[in-house]
Amino acid sequence: MTRNVVISGGGTGIGLAAARTFAAGGDRVLLLGRRREVLEKAGVPGALVYAADLTEPEEVRGVREFVTAELGGRVDVLIHSVGGNGALEPPVASDDPLDVIAHDWTVNFRINTLTAALLTEALRDHLASPGGRVLFLSSITAYRGSTSSPYAASKAALHPYAHELARVLGPRGITVNLVAPGYVEDTGFFGGSAPEDRRAMWIAETSTGRAGTPEDIAETLHWLASPAAGHITSQVIQVNGGAERGR
For the chain, which residues make up each domain, given as ranges? Predict the structure, then answer.
């Protein structure tokens, strides 16, 4: 049976890699993101697209209506890949340090945490029962910290939410898991290439001696969404070449 797969942030980076992987497996994919032109240019065969700012409740209601109309109200797999580096969002119009801090923390939690919570709650009743899958993108920084504490904290905040969802949705035959990537290239997370000294440091921290790729994460998500992973829930899967353990 063809599954309905909803992917936020599906137009670029990890989300796009996941969309291509699921589509290649015969699933029907819905790409969500703020920029319709990016979604339409993603080139995922047969994909539906819907542009929405997932930090805004009214726009998330629009997603729910679209899912009802176009996907028959059934979501088999929900993947939260939207978000990223809050430092790339427009800055606050103030030089006051406290204004800057308030803005930084608020932006990161809005794009990385609130988006996931709003979309999940909007589609909770649409998740296939049994067999539904909810998958969150966390980060190695949720364990190790980061030079961007707001970003790390916004990802860490997904963990207790996912664990609670796993308990609540488990009786319906729905699993909920997180994937925690380390350094992944070709995602646009840095707004360009990562500084070479930091890139070399992050790769040196791995046991595999290489950076991650969006496809590494996409394949892990695909497996977690498969019947083979049906008894795995409330887990954080580390996909970072062992870097979370350090050197």
Answer: 4-240
